[in-house]
Amino acid sequence: MEAERQAPRIKNRAPAPVQITAEQLLREAQENQDKPLQGLARHRIEDYEELDDYRARKRKDFEDAIRRLRGNVCQMDRARSVFERALDVNPHHIPLWIRYTEQELKARNVNHARNLFDRAVSILPRIDQLWYKYVHVEELLGNVGGTREIFERWMSWEPEERAWSAYISFELRYNEYERASAVWERAVTCHPTPRQWIRWAKYEEDRGDLEKTRRVFHMALDFFGEDESVLERVQTVFTAFAKMETRQTEYDRARMIYKYALERLPRAKSEGIYASYTRFEKQFGNIKGVEDTVTQKRRLQYEEELESGQGTGNYDTWFDYTRLEEDSYRTLLEDDAPESMLEMAREKVRQVYERATAQVPPAYEKRLWRRYIYLWLRYALFEELDTKDLELAKKVYATAVSIVPHREFTFAKLWLAYAKFEVRRLDIAVARKILGTAIGLAPKKKLYAGYIELELALKEFDRARKLYEKSLEWDPTSSSTWVRFAELEQNLFDLDRARAIYELGITQSESDLGGLDMPEVLWKAYIDFEFGEREMERVDALYERLLERTGHVKVWISYALGKMAAALAFEEDEDADAEEEGAKSTLSSEEEALRAQRRAGAAEETRNIFKRGYENLREQELKDESVVLLEAWKVFEEEHGDESKVAAVQERMPRVLKKRRELGDGATEEYYDLVFPEDEKKDKPALKLLQMAHAWRAQQQQPT
């Protein structure tokens, strides 16, 4: 075994007389491979499986030959035949054409590549990728004329914008500016978009041919016309045209273009050009020009809305339109414009108001008439304040009043504005007649209040009393009217009459008229009136009468705290009297003792009332209200009592316990209940175990 593993011995180690190199070995291998094999056996193929196997074997041999020698041109014929057979199967496969042409170009078969490109664009004329490569190859070969012919063939198929741009760029590379201009004209004919027109004009501007540039813009505007479907896109052409003139310092031309565009473009489609014009005027114009343009634009906008029917029933449009015209008129006034211009502006405002007020609401529903009435009010104020035509303003008010269906509803604001207008004209009789007519047609609380306010301003107190009486006859349930009537008498220092009015008011709740709308307001005003007069006995009597009607917790708290408030009020009155008499501000010991005694008595009375209120609420089983009263009582004791008093109130505070109750069908729920100390005493046997538990827990928490 060891002898078999040993290498064979070399007997002759001398060099051979003829040396064989690696190059010779490779050459001999190639020559032997290229020689046809002699005497090869013929293969007999019996079925499709053997045929597929034979094809695969031959294909592998061909691929191995190409892989070994990539520069061997002898294999091109075979590759070309493969591409041709593939094109016979699918001549519309674009990557196949591209790979075929790239292979021919790599092999420097230029003419064959040209023929392939020509065949490709003939079969697929809509594939721009093939055209791009075709013209690129011809231009690289320096065939400018041939490249132009290819472009012409391509453009005859009306390709996309990028193809036209490529043709134009080709002409510009060879300084053929006129040819490029002609191509631009054909391009905008094929793709007449605003962007293409603007690019053509920019090209002519860059060449320095301004007349041709203007002609291009005019051609574009003539082409688009004034069709509403394309106006939104046309504004870019107008903007580009105006900006071109601005760059050439032709500011008047640019301004005319902007104005021309704004007059013809609809409002919803001109935001862009309007913004451009505003920037233009800020840079090269004056503020008046901007304002005029804005006014005209908004005027067209409102007219457009009204014509489309959007503003007929929408009074917001009319408000905006009238405000615009009023502002224009006021601007002319400030600028001291000629009278003819002012007259035209006034007539314009009146025409708009007349058109607006002619839009009467279609139904007698007050919600539809509210904004309509404001149009009349604004119209009248314009005539009165701006034009100073009082007669016309009066006519406006009278017309508005005659239109409103007062039997169904009325507007107190309109009547009061009409009456105040007559007051400003110093015609008080007419103003009273207007308000009297309004109350007779459709009485309202606001009408009575406005009429009374007018009479009070004129110091006609007897007329005001009569109006209050008529108002209460019409609506005796209005607590605010009773209060204002009593305050009038109080201000006139007729206390007995004021007290009588309060008494009549609080008796309305017991009448058959349905009572007062807010009786608490009247009771509070009556109590405050007696308190202000320092009639404490009457105050107590009023509280007692009120508690007979309602045992509300707020009444009890107010009644109790009023005692201490009365004591403090008496002290303030004494200090004020002393200051008026010039006495010393310091009090003597007797006065201090008297005040302390008075406060102690008031505090004791307050506690008694709190106690009464607490017992009353507990009798009614009003637990939450009882807690509210105890909280107020505790705050009072913390301010005016001592610790023992506070502790006494705290002992009355309930505890919150969690309980369970049955809902039926065996279901239960937990709820929280307030348990007062007196309730615990009544149910002491049942709570004995719970108290013992609390005592044990308190003992456990004490430190050892």
TrEMBL record:
Residue ranges constituting the Pre-mRNA-splicing factor Syf1-like N-terminal HAT-repeats domain according to the UniProt record: 75-192
Database matches in InterPro entries: HAT (IPR003107), HAT_Syf1-like_N (IPR055433), HAT_Syf1_CNRKL1_C (IPR055430), Syf1-like (IPR045075), TPR-like_helical_dom_sf (IPR011990)
SMART domains documented for this protein: HAT
Disordered as annotated region, ranges: 572-600
Every Pre-mRNA-splicing factor Syf1/CRNKL1-like C-terminal HAT-repeats domain range: 210-299
GO CC terms, sorted: post-mRNA release spliceosomal complex; precatalytic spliceosome; Prp19 complex; U2-type catalytic step 2 spliceosome
GO biological process: spliceosomal complex assembly
Superkingdom of origin organism: Eukaryota
Gene3D superfamilies per record: Tetratricopeptide repeat domain
UniProt signal peptide: none
Keyword Nucleus: yes
Cited function: Involved in pre-mRNA splicing and cell cycle progression. Required for the spliceosome assembly and initiation of the DNA replication.
Homology family: Belongs to the crooked-neck family.
Quaternary organization: Associated with the spliceosome.
Protein name from the UniProt record: Clf1p
Lineage start: Eukaryota, Fungi, Dikarya, Basidiomycota, Ustilaginomycotina
Underlying gene: CLF1
